[in-house]
Structure formats: structure tokens, C-alpha cells
Amino acid sequence: MKKQLIEHSLPSLKDAAKRSKEQTKIVVEDLKPSSRLLEYAKNKRYFVRTYGCQANVVDSEMIEGILQELGFIPCDDPIKSDLVILNTCAIRENAEDKVFGEVGSLKRLKDQNKEALIGLCGCMVQQTHIVEKVKQSYPQVDLIFGTHNIYRLPILLDEAIFSERRIIEIYSKEGEVIEGVPLVREDKIKAFVNIMYGCDKFCTYCIVPYTRGKQRSRRVSDILVECQELVRQGYQEITLLGQNVNAYGKDLDENLSFASLLEAVAKTGIPRLRFTTSHPWDFTREMFDVIAKYDNVMPCIHLPLQSGSDDVLRRMGRRYTSAEYKALVDELKKMIPDIALTTDIIVGFPNETDDDFEKTLEMVHYCHYDSAFTFIYSPRIGTPGAKMKDETPFEVKKARFERLVKAVEEEASKRALRYVGNVYDVLVEGSSKKKDDILSGYTETLKLVNFKGSQDLIGKIVKVKILESHTFSLIGEVAENG
Ligand code: SAH
Ligand code: SF4
Ligand code: F3S
After folding, report:
1. Which residue has better confidence, 436 or 389?
2. What fold is seen in the domain 187-298?
3. How far, in Å, from the CA of 200 to the mean position of ligand 2?
4. CATH number listed for the domain at residues 423-478
5. Does the C-beta of 150 come closer than 6 Å to ligand 3?
6. Is residue 55 in contact with ligand 3, taking CB distance under 6 Å?
7. Is the pLDDT of residue 367 over 70?
């Protein structure tokens, strides 16, 4: 029998597109779970699968933090779990297809264990048409919640379990900053720290401003307390996270810049500090100075290009020209000669011409990227891009994509050669699954290095001499006196 639905609130892309000038509200979460939920959770197993970007990784850490505080125990097999939560991504159609595939296969879980619960959350369910589709065609999903109300999980779970109905609660309002949600970090070496949520850029291809809402910055004091605690716990690396980190603080009345926040976090003494993503449009002089001044701010910048054509960039709403982007790259390389640059590029934006695409290739060769994430454009319902006419056949896009991948690999291989024969600091993260004396870690420039060494080096920064280079990884040996 189909369970009845309780719809607390449904997503609305129209509401999600609204932005007000209001100051960010900071709310400290203090929801108390019911005693019947605490009783229920005893010895129950949960499984969380994360799709998408680091924002979702941190959200999943919060979901796990809440579940563990309730008494649930982690389980690494969804089919053996009592509660499965899929934290979804909406960035491209193939990301969504994967989720529907997994929801389909979770029917097996319900066949085995009638009491088991399946929850969907994350960016995908912030979209009206997705929630409609799940309501119609996926009765096995018991709970749907979004990116703005993760902190309400104890309330929503209680209702889903004890009312025996399907619960939907998605907020599309502008959103606040919620502090005080417990968080479980699986990684004990590297940590991601949110400095802001949402995005106000509205690039015309992108769904994120709708699924994540208005840009909201966390208070410096809250960020610093979290980072100081990570240093105290022995973390070796912090990555400050936001869709647009260099727009940090624009929504706070304290008028703080990202550069001053970066400097304050660098001063905590964390051995390695990174940030992502920085939008080329918001890059400031002050940021250059902080990156150059602090040795623990890593010389590696992710600077999404998206396209090398000014016409495409304008239609994407990116707010910079290829000449401005080049000038930024020139300046970064002048200031830090060994800097590693990485990027994101979209191929096949509506009506991208051969000439536009050639300009993207030109840019790849000009910037000598160390690596790049490359994507074929995927229209997202509700974005301006999805309404643009597109006459370019998919095969043409595919052929361009393949050429782009080759160009990126060519540049990455050339860049990798410069490491050979030199010694680098490598933060060791783990060992190979097949051979436990083969360690892997990353240079300051975020290049993957594999080398022979003992397990007790895991979590340490070790000097490694590079012997061989491949496109996306290096092979080395522990340097003498390393
Ligand atoms: N906030 C980051 C990126 C977030 S999404 C930034 O502004 O750079 C990560 C990447 O996905 C984007 O940089 C873009 O290259 C890609 N992307 C976003 N929407 C897409 C779409 N509709 N189709 C294909 N790629 C997309
Ligand atoms: Fe999307 Fe653009 Fe915002 Fe990045 S800056 S999340 S690409 S809208
Ligand atoms: Fe995906 Fe949402 Fe991140 S759409 S890329 S999980 S912000």
C-alpha cells in the first residue's frame, strides 16, 4: 500500500531566485530530539551517500553528526542499513541520472527490511520537477529534505518514522546561516570549512544559486573557532569553502574581505591552507598579498575559466573577458612563479561556434593549467541558459570535448615534467589499496605523488624526490634527510 504524503513545503525555483538586501541572520541550532527517536535509533545502522561537490561533502558530515548524536551507527553497506540517505547533486543531468539509478536499486532494501527508511536530500530535491517525479514514481522514498533544513533532521526523522507517512520539507526562501550543527569528519588529516553558503552570481548555465539560495557568510569568529579546533586536533590542511569565496563578507555589515579572513586563518598555524572556489571577477590585490605573504597558503589556485570566448563568457554572465582573465593569470604567475592553476571549462554552451571553441583551446595553452575539470554543457530547467536556442548538434559538442580533454592532458603532462629531479613537501594521506608500502599524498601544488614508505608517515609532511612524471600523478622516493 502506498504511504500517505505530508508536504510541509515544496520547492519553488521562482522563490529561490529572489534576493533581498537583508543582512544575513545567524541562527544557533538547538533542536532537541524526542525521547522516542533516541530510543528508536539505538543500534540502528545508517548509510549516507554523497554526490556532487565539497559543499555536499560538508553537508553529509553534518547529517552524520546529527545521526550519530541521535545514536545511529554508521554502516558501509546500504542494503544492510536501517536508514539510507542520498545527498544529491543537480549540476548536470548525468549527476541526477546516477541518483535515480541508485534510488531504483534501493527497492531491494525495502524488500529485505520493510522498516528501513530511504531519504533524499541535497541540491536535486530543491527543484520542483524532481520532487514531482519522486512523488509520482519512487514510492520507496520516505523522506525528502533540502539544503536549507538539514538541521531539522531530528524533527523530520521523528515524523517519518512514527507517522508512517512520506514527509517532504524543502525551503526555497533565502536562507540563514545555521551554527551549532554537530559534524563528523571522516578525514583526520584534511578538513573542509564552510565560510559561506549560496551564490548570487547567477551564471546563466548554473543551478546552484537556486538550489543553495542567497549568498550568506559565516561570522569570522565562528570560522576561526572551528579552524583553531582543527589545528588543536592535529589537522594538517584546511580548505575554506564557498561557491565564491572571494565574495566573502559582502553580505555582512562588518565589511570584511576574503583576504582578511584568509590572513586570520593562516595565522592559526594550520600547516596547509587552501580555498575554493575563487571567481576571477572578485579577485583582489589584497588577496595576492596574503597568498604571497603566508607560506602556509598553498600556491595553487582553482580559477574557473568556463570559456575562452568573450561572446560566450558574456552570454554565460561571467562578468570578465578573456583579456582580463589572462591579465589575472599573468599577475599570479609573476607573483608566484611556481603557482599551479586549475580550472573548470564548459564545452557546448548554446550556440558556441567553432571559433568560440578555438578560443577556449587557445586559453588552455596560454594558461598552462596543471589540471582542469571539463564538462559538456547540460541545460538546467529554470536557468536562463535552458531557454537559449541551441543549434549545435551533440556530436559536434562531443568532438570538441574530446579535443579539449587532449589539450588539457597535453598541458598537464608538460607541467608535470618540471617536478622531475626536484624535492617537494608531500602531505601523506594514505597507502595504496593493493600494496600498503606504497604511500600517496599531495604536493603544495596539489599534485598527486606515489612513493614507497612506511605507514607511520601517513598524516605527516615528508620530503619526496620526484623520479617520474605522468599526466596526473608523480612517482618519487623519500628524499635523503627527508
Ligand atoms: N562556484 C563554482 C563552481 C560550481 S559548479 C564556480 O563558480 O566556479 C562546478 C562547475 O560545474 C562549474 O565551474 C562549471 O564548469 C560546471 N557546470 C555548472 N553548471 C553546468 C552545466 N549546466 N553544465 C555543465 N557544466 C556545468
Ligand atoms: Fe554557479 Fe556561477 Fe555561482 Fe559558480 S559563480 S556557483 S558557476 S552561478
Ligand atoms: Fe552539485 Fe549542489 Fe554542489 S548542484 S555541485 S552539490 S552545490
Report:
1. 389
2. Transcription Regulator spoIIAA (3.30.750)
3. 8
4. 2.40.50.140
5. no
6. yes
7. yes
Class of domain 319-417 as given by CATH: alpha beta
The set of residues, in sequence order, having a beta carbon less than 8 Å from that of 50 and lying 6+ positions away, is 56, 57, 59, 60, 87
Q: What is the mean pLDDT of residues 175-184?
A: 91
* Average pLDDT along the chain: 95
Give the mean model confidence (pLDDT) for residues 230-258.
92
Closest listed ligand to the CA of 245 = 1
CB 81 within 8 A of CB 46: yes
Report the run of H or E that residue 331 belongs to, with start and end.
helix 322-335
For residue 212, the ligand 3 atom closest to its alpha carbon is: 7
Same topology between domain 187-298 and domain 319-417: yes
| Whether residue 375 has its Cβ less than 6 Å from ligand 2 | no
Q: How many percent of the chain have pLDDT more than 70?
A: 99
Q: For the domain 5-169, what is the CATH code?
A: 3.40.50.12160
Please give the backbone phi and psi of residue 51, each rounded to the nearest 5 degrees, phi first: -110, 160
Name the E strands within 25-164. Answer: 26-28, 45-50, 73-74, 83-88, 117-122, 143-145
Query: Any idea where the domains of the chain sit in the sequence?
Result: 5-169, 187-298, 319-417, 423-478
| Closest-lying ligand 3 atom to the alpha carbon of residue 90 | 4
Q: Is the Cβ atom of 315 under 6 angstroms away from ligand 2?
A: no
* Mean pLDDT within 225-233: 98
pLDDT at 480: 76
Q: How confident is the model at residue 267 (pLDDT cuts 50, 70, 90)?
A: very high
